[in-house]
Specification:
The protein has helices spanning 12-19, 35-44, 95-108, 124-129; strands at residues 3-6, 48-55, 58-70, 75-85, 114-115. The protein is α+β, with helices and mostly antiparallel strands. The chain has one domain (3-129): Gcn5-related N-acetyltransferase (GNAT) (Aminopeptidase, 3-Layer(aba) Sandwich). A 5-stranded mixed β-sheet has the order 1-2-3-4-5, sandwiched between helices. The longest helix has 14 residues, at 95-108. It is globular, with a radius of gyration of 15 Å.
Length: 143
């Protein structure tokens, strides 16, 4: 059975290797090596965090959260930024525990909501299956 825990510094190379197997057609210029810059900050847990799922010595999946602050929530809310399960672990009960752990982390921080901006077509049914619902459009500007 997979174990979900917060990522640690020793996980960096496995996290990068897992992310590099993730193909996101809407982000053709994505370079997962850039994650090296954010990883240490997310380990601190102040602005976000990373949860990993291990199956034996393999990294089966991960979910990362960021925390934003908004007037309409009277404080912090959570965003699922990255949620990925390795292809060879899909359908084996990895995603649900990761998502539930993310929900618990958000609740423990006092967040009243957790969001996903622009879920993939593949990911949307997973989010809905775990209690989320569609809530509008996503717009952005890139710099």
């Amino acid at each position: 059975m997979a174990k979900v825990r917060r990522a640690e510094a020793r996980d960096l190379e496995k996290v990068i290797a897992l992310l590099e197997t993730w193909e996101l057609p809407n982000f053709p210029d994505l370079n997962w090596q850039d994650a090296r810059q954010a990883f240490p900050e997310l380990l601190k847990g102040k602005r976000g965090l990373i949860l990993v799922s291990e199956e034996g010595s393999a990294l089966a999946g991960l979910i990362s959260l960021s925390f934003a602050y908004a007037l309409h929530f009277g404080g912090e809310y959570a965003l699922i930024e990255d949620f990925y399960v390795a292809e060879n672990f899909r359908g084996k009960g990895i995603g649900g525990p990761l998502m539930q752990a993310a929900f618990q982390e958000a609740r423990d921080r006092g967040c009243r909501e957790i969001q996903v901006n622009g879920p993939t077509d593949e990911g949307l049914p997973v989010y809905i299956r775990h209690g989320m619902h569609e809530a509008g459009k996503h717009v952005k500007a890139s710099f």
